[in-house]
Amino acid sequence: MLLVEVESIERGCKVLLNMDLVIEIVPLTAGGTTLFFADSAAVNGKTAYRVKDSFSQFQQFAMQTVSSEDVAKKVAKLKGSTPLEIPKL
Questions:
Q1: Residue 89 class from Cβ within 10 Å (0-12 exposed, 13-18 middle, 19+ buried)?
Q2: Residue 62 pLDDT more than 80?
Q3: What is the pTM of this model?
Q4: CA–CA distance, 89 with 55 (Å, rounded to integer)
Q5: Sign, CA torsion 14/18/24/25
């Protein structure tokens, strides 16, 4: 379990969040970050939690950041590879 101390906007105090349960992290234009947790009872299946902490604080938890250029390079490599043959039944 990876717990992180953040400043909750809703509660107005520091709280500990389990980062293992976070499914999406979004920076806010006015500052701060929104963390989304899976919630089968919520609309769109996730619940938002707003914190005052900077988005860059959460980037350290990314295993590997991927840019649009990285994706374009990977797609170009896939297009150049030999397609798989599907055996006829």
A1: exposed
A2: no
A3: 0.67
A4: 51
A5: positive
